Amino acid sequence: MLDRLTDLILFRYTNQGKDNNSEPKPYITTGSIIWGALIRTALIVVVSWVIVEYFELRDYWMVVLMVIVGLVIYPAYSQYSHFTGRIEVLQDETMCGTCKHFDPTSQLCRIYDEHVSTTYIPCEGNSWEPAHYDDKE
User: Fold this and answer.
1) Which end of the chain, N or C, is more open, meaning fewer C-beta atoms within 10 Å of its C-beta?
2) Against a cut of 0.70, is the pTM above it?
3) Residue 75 sits in which domain range?
């Protein structure tokens, strides 16, 4: 569990290229991006609170905001950009990408509640229904 927590904090799988569409369970989803951002924000707030109180640096609150932008917002944005690019490729490569039951925000088939990959289609094409332009939100 500690390894998984470290991976979420550091976005390790994207940087090593291990997060791809052929894995049966994706490492990076929108939930994992938000979870990692929340953990990093909490760590930065606690550490900065201790440092500010110990060294009495109350006039330098802008540094804490820049650290949050640099260590939380930018990595989460770049991770989300990588995730959306990977989902676009998945939608082009698989039959599930054109199904109305495919949820691109979590790379999930809504009927079977299972993750979709290029090597695994939960319904094997039996429950496929075309996505209409009305279904897109």
Assistant:
1) C
2) yes
3) 2-84
